[in-house]
């Protein structure tokens, strides 16, 4: 499951994956719905259902008038159950429901009423009688109830859209994972308590009802849709949609698939339908298990966040399913295929085999994350999507899993709030990266056989991690594959240890060997841990730069270190972890770092593209945590003038954006800009600013990264060409290609006339397209002229303009996140209009917009002049009721952090840049060092 609520990423200073102003893929996590956002106490009581009874079959009848916008619904659920332990009561889950009656019927047909009691904290509906239910007896429980369709996209909910005539249309949909099925019907709402389901929905005849299974034509009638009974499945995978949706359909390898969406969007369904059919078959082939239901639907739901893997009927946010050939970008196209891969993988990992409990959430989400890329790569191999896996998942997980107290992949939870907290980078990106590591370490042949074993052994059931380990072990044994310990021992160190290792490589340049030492890595270098892992690794050297075979050639046991007795030439670079498949960081001795830099500068394509990206990523983290000299990273960045691939440029973009944020107020900031302009210029000239039909998929991604970096660095050619293209668009209606539109508007406005800026401003006010409006707001924040910025930020409180209420509190951040001129404009505006801005809360519903803006702005104050202006503003507002009492303390602390960063990192970076600009280029320095080292070694041998 994926959701737009997302998972909180660490502060920008720690996030080297930031893509600046580039539209990019966003990995999103499931939502914390309103009722589970409240922090419940860690259970002194047991939140798990008692195991006295188990369900076999549900018969659900729902009645809705959602076509009229009515939120009320009613239902009857009949559950066939078995009593496992003699008991006087049956306990179910229920949420926000009103109960009318509960009756029980024995196998002989006798029926009686039950008393019912509801416990809100655990959401337990207890149905009791005085005479015990005997062990091993079967019963038919019927509960009649009613409820309200929710408005927060959780449970059984109502949402709306505007049709082509501007009329509001309503529909009902579901989002049950992880604990929301209980909102639609009383049930055993735990993943291991699987059963079969029969669903009937009564609705307006002009609407259509959809569910997991095909319609039962014989039982259905006008306004009554009865569905075929499901296979054995968990409650959280049941789904309903009641709407006026239209569909496209296709059949591939005998499986019928449809894409549903609101009327008028049928022409945007094709890409999702094609990708769904291709990816489903690729996954069936890989797992050796055919798709197990008679149909597979995918539905695009207006206003939905993320996506959900309901068995046989996956649901998606519209922007994750609908693709317009004329206006959608390459990012949208890629995201749709990738997210479809995630949800369809779940049809096997999560649906066919679910998890025994949410403790093992990674056992489904990690596989879905990995196979969102494996399946997309199988369907569209020409894309080279593994570069995006590296930047979006692998590097993100490395950043986020290095905090002070990382949580293991396998981690027990109980309450709804605790369960919700498991939907984070650990269960998704980290688990996917760890599985990716073992996929390569063990070989794809063994991994594939192991997954087939796991799915086949646990089909239509629930599993824990040991069942995966055993399935992989059986595959290893069948191939007589040699590993140093059992897979349960090795993989268990990754599922039960939070965080990940740092490998420190020390070479012996006399005998050619090297030592590898492991310890836990933390962003804060002062934190220590005793955690140790079984670590698979391999390596390549300059004299044999072959990165193709990613099988583990060596293992570091969970005792700390290992020695590799090789005869590596002393002038060879050594790089561990071919293709960066292993989930760890690697630090080398300084001499090897400089040999690597020399290799990058002289022959960068001898080193695999993902290793080139990760070398920068590691060097940045090490320089940020006092483990490595800043000069190593800065010298490494000089090689970028020869780079044209996405993963390295995306990584460099993240690093440069962090540096730019802090250094833009420095007196020698131009040295930094000149350096970035210099290293980006060759690639900028190669790709230009025009989208080229037929070019490689990720060239389009790389072009946008390089345009952003070059223009932010005040590259004259970039500023001139983006402005000219924007002016051609405005003056002569020349179309700007969707893939570069955000870059052209943003950077075309950096140095432009009043006429062009006003045109874009007016276009924002008049546009009815929210995507276009968002682009205009983001672009105008890039402006660098004071008058343009003043007009833009002041629009946030102008009640006479056509800004939508939810847009008004996004204006300032678009400006102040783009540099000191935007920050100064925001400060100047709030100095005069802070009360009007604070009162936007009544129009937008956003709490304390002034307080939120000021806290965020403080993270961008990086000069004494800015600090003086900003703190004067804080003094003006701090006593008001619009801000929190701790505002001054918080912003002062953040500004101190900014200046500490500049002292620790800014000074050495700017010192290196000063030397570099004076003519002592990194290439010359590295080459000279290498020559000197070689001569010294030769002399050593002679004497």
From TrEMBL:
InterPro entries reported for this sequence: Aminopeptidase_N-like_N, Aminopeptidase_N-like_N_sf, ERAP1-like_C_dom, M1_APN-typ, Peptidase_M1, Peptidase_M1_aminopeptidases, Peptidase_M1_dom, Peptidase_M4/M1_CTD_sf
Lipid bilayer topology: Lipid-anchor; GPI-anchor; Single-pass type II membrane protein
One Pfam assignment: ERAP1_C
Catalytically driven reaction(s): Release of an N-terminal amino acid, Xaa-|-Yaa- from a peptide, amide or arylamide. Xaa is preferably Ala, but may be most amino acids including Pro (slow action). When a terminal hydrophobic residue is followed by a prolyl residue, the two may be released as an intact Xaa-Pro dipeptide
GO cellular component: cytoplasm; extracellular space; plasma membrane; side of membrane
EC numbers: 3.4.11.-
Coiled-coil regions listed in the entry: none
Subcellular locations according to the entry: Cell membrane; Membrane
Keywords assigned: Aminopeptidase, Cell membrane, Disulfide bond, Glycoprotein, GPI-anchor, Hydrolase, Lipoprotein, Membrane, Metal-binding, Metalloprotease, Protease, Signal, Signal-anchor, Transmembrane, Transmembrane helix, Zinc
Entry annotation: catalytic residues: 343 (proton acceptor)
One annotated GO biological process: proteolysis
Positions contributing to Zn(2+) binding: 342, 346, 365
Cofactor(s) this protein cannot do without: Zn(2+)
Domain Aminopeptidase N-like N-terminal stretches: 54-237
Keyword GTP-binding: no
Site positions for Transition state stabilizer: 428
GO MF terms held by the record: alanyl aminopeptidase activity; metalloaminopeptidase activity; peptide binding; zinc ion binding
Entry note: cofactor: Binds 1 zinc ion per subunit.
Peptidase M1 membrane alanine aminopeptidase domain sequence ranges: 283-494
Domain ERAP1-like C-terminal: 573-875
This protein's record includes keyword Transit peptide: no
Residues spanning the signal sequence: 1-24
Family the UniProt entry places it in: Belongs to the peptidase M1 family.
Protein name in the entry: Aminopeptidase
Encoding gene per record: 106091994
